[in-house]
Amino acid sequence: MSDVQLHAVSKAFGPVEAVREVSLEIDRGELVAVLGPSGCGKTTLLRTIAGFERPDAGRVVVSGEVVAAPDRFVPPERRRIGMVFQDYALFPHLAVTANVAFGLAGRPREEREALTRRTLELVGLQHKSGRHPHELSGGERQRVALARALAPEPAVVLLDEPFSSLDASLRAGLRREVELILRDAEATALLVTHDQEEALSLADRLAVMREGRIVQVGAPEEVYVRPASRWAAQFVGEVNVFSGVARGTGVETELGVFDLRAPASGAVHVAVRPEQLELRADHDGNAEVVAREFRGHDVLYRLRHEGGRVVLVQLPSLELHEVGARVFVRPAPAAVTTLVD
Amino acid sequence: MKSDGIDAWAILPALFAVAVAGPLVGLPLSYAVAPGALSEFSGLVPEALGATLVLIAGVGAGTLVLGTALAVLVSFCDFPGRRWIEWALVLPLAMPGYVFTLFSLGLDLPGIRSPLGAVCVFTLVLYPYVYLLARAAFLAQSRTLLEAARGLGLTRRAAIVRVGLPLARPAILGGVALALMEALADFGTVNLLGVRTFTDAIYRVWFIGFDRDAALQLATLLVSVTLTLLVLERLARGRARYHELAVRGDLTPPVRLRGAAAAAAVIAPLALVGFVVAAPLTQLAVWSVESVREGLLSPEFATAARNSVLLAGMSALLVPLAALLLAYGARASRSRTAGALARTATIGYGLPGSVVAVAVIVPLSWIDRRVDGVAGTGLLLTGTVIGLFYAYLVRFLALAWGAVEASLIRIPRRLDEAARGLGADRLDVLARVHVPLMRAGLATAALLVFVEVMKELPATLLLRPLGGDTLAIAVWQATTESLFETAALPALLIVLVGLLPVAAMIRLSGRRGAELEAAQTAGTWAEELEERRVAPA
Fold first, then answer.
1. A77 contacts in B (CB within 8 Å)?
2. Cβ contacts (< 8 Å) between B424 and chain A: which residues?
3. Distance between CA atoms of A128 and B356, rounded to whole angstroms?
4. What's the fold here for domain B1-33+301-468?
5. Which of A281, A340, B203, B346 has the highest count of CB atoms within 10 angstroms of its CB?
6. Closest-CA residue in chain A for B413?
7. Which residues contact B260 (CB under 8 A, 6 or more apart)?
8. How far is CA B342 from the centre of its chain?
9. CA neighbor of A153 nearest in space, from A186, A120, A127
10. CATH assignment of A241-340, among 3.30.70.20, 2.40.50.140, 1.10.10.10, 3.40.50.1000
11. How near does any CA of chain A get to the CA of B418, in Å?
C-alpha cells in the first residue's frame, strides 16, 4: 500500500509553473529521493505534500486520506508529516528534549516522555538532551531536526536538502547515519536533493525532476543504467552520447558496435557510461588523452577521438595513461547501452 | 473536515484598521454634518492658529539649537564624565510638560504664563528628540568623511560645520518634527500656562460649549496643521537620506577638551539636566512631604493612584495583545493588503490625545444610543472606561506594534512551518513559538504603553467616567487651582514611572557598539513614525 500518492499535482507562482502534473507514489517504509537541478520545482513539490503550499490542481493522498484536492485542503498540522528543513529550523528557545517533544503535545505525559527518550536514543543524542540548539554542532542539529520530525511517528518524513548546510567532509558520514536512522525507524521518507551522489547512494527509488515534471522514476541502478532521456542520462552521472545506426540488437557507432537493450533499427543515439568503454595504450590508437582525473580507486579520462569529439572513459586505477598519450578506445565487452533522444 | 475558506487571522488586520482609522474619518465629515458649528466660537480659531504658529517657530528653533548643540558636544568632544552626561541629557524625556509647568508655576518663574514661557517649557523637555537623533546620525558618520574634509584644508570646526552637520540634517529635522508634534499634541502645559492653542480650544468647546461638532472641526484643523508640518519637513529634507549612504567606518575620534572648555562642557549640560529634572524632582519631593505632613494631600489621591495603575496596567496588557494579534495576523496571511491594513491600524500615534478622544466618541455614542434604545443599558461605552481603553488603543497601538513587530520580524518563517508540520495550529504557533521568542519585545511594548497611559492627560480628561480621575488629572486639577503641594506627589509618581523606560534604554546601551545600534534603532523608529504620521495625507 502506498503511504503517499500524488495525482497530477500542479502548482504555479504567477507565470512560473513550479510543479506540472506530477504523479508519484511512495510505499510504506520506502526512501524516495527527488533529484533535480535547483529551480526544478522539487522543493515546491515537497512543500505541497507538507501543506505549506496549496496545489492548483491534482490530489495529494497521505495514508489513504486525501489531504489536498480541488475541493479539500487539510492544513499542515493535521497531515501527520514530519519535515526536516534545510536549515533545520530548530526552536532556539527550547532545549533538545523540548524540541523533540514539540510535536507530542496533547499526548499523555508517559507516552510523550517515552517517545522523546526513544527518539533521542535513536539519533544517539540522549547525552545532549539538555542543550540548546546554539550549543550543538551542525551534525547534531541535524540529528535533532530528524528526531523532532520522527518523534510523532509521522506517516511520512520529508527532508529538504538535509545535507546541504553541512561541511563536505561531514556529509558522507551523516548521510549514512541518517539513512540508518530512517531505516531503523521504518519511516517512509521523501528526500529532495540536487546532489546525484546523495540520491543514488541513499534512495530505494529515485524520481528525476526537470522543469516541474518528473522525467523518470526508478531504482537508482535502473535510472543510471537505463536513463529515460539524454537529459536524465547527463544529469545522473557522467555519460557519452553517440550517434549510430541500429540493426537489431546492435548499434554501430564511430567507436565500434555496442549491444542494445532492446532491438531497434535506423539512426539512433545511445547513452554510453564512461565505464562501458575500455582503452589500451596504442601509438596508432584512435584517440589521445586530453585530461585525467584520478579518483583513487578509479580514473576518469577525457579523450579526444580522431573524429574530433570528446569521450569520457572510466577505468580502475591499475594502469595509468599519461596526458598526451595515444590510446585505442573501444566498447567494453558486454557493454549494453540504452537508446536516448 | 474543514476547507481553507476565509482565514480568521487574515481578518484581524482589517478589523483593527477599521477600528483605529474608522473614527478618524469622522473628523472632516463633521464639516459636512454641521457646516456652521464653529461660527459660535469664531474667536477661537485665529487665536489657536496664532498660538500654534508661535509654538512651531519657538519650539522648532529652540529644540533645533539646543538638541543639535548638545549632540555636537557629546559626539565630537571628549571631556570628563562624557559617557554619563551623554545619557543624563536624555532624562528630560521622562518629564511630562505639565509636570515641569507645575514646578515653574510653583516657583513663580517670571513670564512663565505666556506663549514664550510655553516655548521655553517645551524646548527644555522636548530637545532630547533632536539630541538623540542628531547624536545617532553623528555616530553613524564615518571618520573618513571628516578626515577627507580636513585633508581638503578645513579646520576641525569647519569640517563639522560643513560636512558633519549637513550630513545629519535629515535626522535633525526629523527630531525637530517629532518635538513639534509633541508640542502640538500637548494639552496640560498650554492649558496651565493660559496659552490658547487648538488642544485647549477643543477642551473648552467640549466642556464649556458642549459642542461636539465644533470640537471635531477644531480637531480636524489641528490634524491639518500637523500634516502640513510633516509635508514641509519632507520637502525641506528633499530626497536627502544621507545617513544611509554614509560609509561604515571607524567612529570619529572625539577631541579632548581641556581647561575652561572642559569645565563648561561638564557644567552646562549638568546645569540643564539639573534644572529640568533634578530640581523639579527635589521640589516635588519637598512639596510631597509637606503635603503629607500637613494633610494637604487630596482626599482622592488614593483613588487616582489606583485608577492610574489600573488603567495603565490594563492597557499594558490589552494594547500589546492587540498589537500582537495585529502583527501576527499580517504575518499569517502573508498578503500585501494585510500589511497595508496593519500600517493603517497604527496611524493613531501621530494624533494628539484630544483629537483621538473626540474622534472615538462619535462611533461609541452612536452605538450607545442604539444599544440603550434596545436594552436600556445607559451609556455603556462612553460612560465607562471602555471608551477610554478604546482611545488608548487608537493612540498607542502603534507604539506597541513597533516593539512587537520588530521582534516578530526576527523569527524566521521556517519556524512557523516546522511547528505546523509538527501538528501545531496557528494559535499554537503563536503561543508556543512566537510568544516565548518575543518576550523582550512584548515586555518593551507593555512598559511603553504603561508609562504613556500614566502620563496621558487630554484623552483621559475628555473621556474619563465619573470618579475616574487619574494621577495625571489630579496633577492638572491641583495645578489649575495653584495647589502645588497637592499636585506634587502624583506628579512625582508619574515622573518616577516615566524614568523606567529611559533607564532601560540607557542600561541596554552600555557598550559603545550597542549604543550605536540603539541610536540607529531610534532613528529607524523615528522615520517609521513619520511615515505613519504622513500616511493619512
1. 420-425, 428
2. 77, 102-103, 105
3. 55
4. MetI-like fold (1.10.3720)
5. B346
6. A89
7. none
8. 19
9. A186
10. 2.40.50.140
11. 6
Q: Domain coordinates of chain B in residue numbers?
A: 1-33+301-468, 35-296+508-537
Q: Name the pairing type of β-strands A256-272 and A240-253.
A: antiparallel
The alpha carbon of residue B341 is apart from the nearest alpha carbon of chain A, in Å, by 23
Distance from the Cα of A205 to chain B's closest Cα (Å) equals 24
Distances (CA, A) of B39 to A136, B36, B201, B215: 73, 5, 14, 12
Least confident piece of the model among A88-97, B14-23, B310-319: B14-23
DSSP strand pairing (A287-294 vs A326-331): antiparallel
Do A157 and A150 touch, CB atoms closer than 8 A? Answer: yes
Q: Minimal Cα distance from B432: which residue of A? A: A102
CATH 2.40.50.140 residue window(s) in chain A: 241-340
The fold for domain B35-296+508-537 equals: MetI-like fold (1.10.3720)
- Which residue among A50, A73, A148 sits closest to B4, beta carbon to beta carbon? A73
In sequence order, what are the residues at sequence separation of 6 or more whose Cβ sits closer than 8 angstroms to the Cβ of residue B29?
Answer: none
Helix (H) or strand (E) segment spanning residue B390: helix B385-408
Q: Where exactly does CATH 3.40.50.300 map onto chain A?
A: 2-235
Assess B1–A contact: CB distance below 8 Å, yes or no.
yes
CA–CA distance, A296 with A127 (Å, rounded to integer): 38
Interchain contact, B437 vs A93, CB within 8 Å: yes
Amino acid code (one letter) for B336: R
> Could you say which of A74, A85, A94 has the minimum Cβ distance to residue B414?
A85
CATH of domain A2-235: 3.40.50.300
CB proximity list for A163: less than 8 A, separation 6 or greater: A142, A171, A174, A175, A178, A193, A195, A198
Mean pLDDT of B193-199: 93
Q: d(Cα B136, Cα A38) in Å, to the nearest integer?
A: 43
C-alpha cell at A132: 540548546
Distance from C-alpha of B68 to C-alpha of B57, rounded to nearest angstrom: 16
Query: Nearest CA of chain A to the CA of B439: how many Å?
Result: 11
What is the amino acid identity at position A144?
V
A7's CB contacts (< 8 A; 6+ apart) are A23, A58, A59, A60, A61
Closest alpha carbon to A269 in A239, A237, A302, A313: A239
Query: Of chain B residues 2-41, which have a CB less than 8 A from chain A?
Result: 3-4
Q: Given a cut of 60, is residue B528 above it in pLDDT? A: no
What is the full DSSP assignment across A76-130?
GGGS-EEEE-TT----TTS-HHHHHHGGGTTS-HHHHHHHHHHHHHHTT-GGGTT
Beta strands in chain A (DSSP E): 2-13, 16-27, 31-35, 57-62, 65-69, 72-73, 81-84, 156-160, 189-193, 205-210, 213-218, 240-253, 256-272, 277-281, 287-294, 298-305, 310-316, 326-331, 336-340
Per-residue pLDDT of chain A (341 residues; tens, 9 = 90+): 578 999 999 999 989 999 999 999 999 999 999 999 988 999 999 999 999 999 999 999 999 999 999 999 998 988 989 999 988 899 998 999 999 999 998 899 999 999 999 999 989 999 999 999 999 998 899 999 999 999 999 999 999 998 887 777 778 888 888 899 999 888 899 999 998 888 998 899 999 999 999 999 999 999 999 999 999 999 988 899 999 999 988 899 989 899 988 888 889 999 999 999 999 999 988 999 999 999 888 899 999 998 888 999 999 988 889 999 999 999 998 888 888 88
B433 touches chain A (CB under 8 A): yes
Q: Give the SS3 label for residue B471.
A: helix
Distances in Å between the alpha carbon of A321 and those of A139, A282, A303, A327, B103?
40, 11, 11, 8, 97
User: How far, rounded to the nearest angstrom, does the alpha carbon of residue A326 sit from its chain's CA centroid?
Assistant: 37
Q: Which three cell numbers stand for residue A218?
A: 526508478
